[in-house]
Each structure stands twice: as structure tokens, then as C-alpha cells.
Amino acid sequence: MMVKQHMLFTLYSICGIVLKDILAVSGAQIQFPIVQNMTVTEGGIANLTCRVEHNDNTSLQWSNPAQQTLFFGDKKALRDNRIELVRATSQELTISISEVTLGDEGMYTCSLFTMPVKTAKAFLTVLGVPKKPEINGLTKPVLEGDQITLTCVTSGSKPAADVRWFKNEKEVKGAKEVNASGKTFTVKSSLQLQVNRHDDGVAYTCRVDHMALTATHEETTQVLEVHYAPYVEIKHSIPAPLEGQYLKLECVPHGNPSPDPVLWTKDGGELPDLDRVIVEGRELTFMSLNKTDNGTYRCEATNHLGTSHAEYKLVVKDPNALPGPPDHALIGGIVAVVVFATLCLIIVLGRYLARHKGTYLTNEAKGADDAPDADTAIINADGNHAHAEEKKEYFI
Q: Has this prediction a pTM greater than 0.90?
């Protein structure tokens, strides 16, 4: 038996060498199948194409990673309803695999049955689609001051998905963890929060990006509900109340749960004259103010987390006792007169000082202008002083 196999092998080799020589002499080209690697998303369709140029009706064959024949020419060899023939010619064999799974990933072989057989291999990559993310760790409601940890989890991605957090559409940083589970990955991202009243109504979104999600992304959103004690403010309709005017005070409480109803008091007691002072919900209205309305009005709001209040001090003024508006034209005229008088005084004083200085110099140098020398000038000047002495009058 062994001798027979050896003889067959020898005969096969001789025939191959002879065929090769014949082709070389005739100038024919040895053909090889041409294939391409392919990437497809889980659940999609993979088309595997094998081509050869100038084929002389030699059969083409596709085999799966387990070396099982899928199609030999146009003949289906494997019973799998997902695998269909697309085209079978002497130069091309194309098949399709629908509803692709991760198990379909691997190396596929196209064979051209020449002597010897020529093969080409194409790797089919299957992308695992990440599942819609889930957010855990949130209980509703959350109390102000609580520390919570939000966790976003997505599984089934291949390769591992990218998970990001957004706070009202603004990205925030989370701590990511990736774990392998067979051929796919589970990705978890955690976000720690110290909540306060400003977090009430804030939307936290976990977004998953992956190459298998070409058109969009998967995301899940949770809105925080934060309960906190109330705080109160009072708004008034006019800034300076006068007698006879209409005034509305509005109590605006902020809290969750909403503190309702509110309580109005005056000077620590009940509101007087309820026929004239109207209370409607959170509003306190004075139809026509008078000085008896003066006092401190207090609005108090309460929920199960606490109580808060705000106060408004009302001082009603007599419109007739108020000073009139200043006469800006009169003030401007007075300022102009003062400035003009100051300028005139400066000019007159300057001229007086200039004239006084010139006279002093002239009197001192009188009689010295015509002196032939300095000594004569001094004598003349002294003479003037002496002459001045002679003109003194004495009264007895």
C-alpha cells in the first residue's frame, strides 16, 4: 500500500513538472485567486468575493475557518440558511453570509483547483455592537448633602466601547473600567457626586461611542431630584411706597418639595384689617396705603426638611412732605456766576500786583538814571532820601 501511494505521488509530481514546462513554453500565466479582508457589524451581511483572471473553467471554492466547504463553484456544500450564492462564474465566486455573529469571525479560504491548487485567505472581522447603557446607583429623591455614585455599564462591544459622561450636555470625567467577557467587552464608568440644591433637575447622560455605531451613539439619561430645605425672598411692586398707592408683596419660596402654603404675619402677629389687606396664595396686596400699614411683614415657608422666612419693612410716606426735585437750571446759573466772579477777581488782583511792583522800583531808582557814575547815583539816591526827610511836617 505504501509503495502504491509513493508511486502515485511520484506520478503526480512528474505530471506537475511536465504541465509547468508546457505552460512555460506556451507563455501562459499561472493564475492565483484574489480576495480581500472584510469587516462587518454583528447582525449584518458579509459578502466574500474571490476573483481570478483568464481562468479556463477551473473550479473555485470557499471554505470557512473550520475548513468546511461552503460553496464549490455554484454548488452549496454546507447546510446553513444564512449562506447564499451571489455569483458563480469561471472568474468569480461570491457568497454572502447574513445575520453575521461573532462566531463567524475568522480566516476564510478561496481555492483555485489548478495543478497544484492555489489558495488565498481573507480574514472576516466581526464588530460586537455595544448594548444600550444602564445607569445604576441613583435613588429618587436624593437629599441635599448626600454623596452618591452613578455607574454606567454597557456590554457586548468588540473592541471595547468608549463611555463618556455629560452633565446637561457638558462633558464630565468619570472613572472607566474594562473587562473581557469571551470575545466581547463590558465597560463600566463611575461618577461620584456630592449633591446640593443646584443639582436638582440636572440631567446626567451616559453616552457610548463605538465603530459599530456608525450613524449615532447609544445613551441613557437620568435626571436628579434633590430635596432641600426652603429659603425665601420677598418681591415688592414699588420701591418707595406713598400714601394712597397700591402695593403688592410677593413671597417667593424656593425648596423641594415646594413649601406651600406660606404664612404672612405683621410685627410677629396676625395681619390687621383683612378687609383692606388682601392675601391671595403667596401675595399680600394693599389696595390703598396709609401710615397705619407701617411695620415689618414676614413671610414663612416650611417643608419636611425645615423652615425659612424673609422680612419686608414697610414705611409709608406722605407725598406732600417730600421735597421737590432740585432746580438744576438755578444751580447751574449760580455755579456760572461764582466761576465768573472768581476769574474777575484773579485778573484785577494780578494787574494790581504788577502795577505796585513797577512803582516801587521806579521810586527807588529815582535820580540815579542821569548819574555819570555809580557813586553819584548812590549820592543822588541818598539825596532823594534826604530830600524826603526835609519835606516832613511836624505838628505841635
A: no
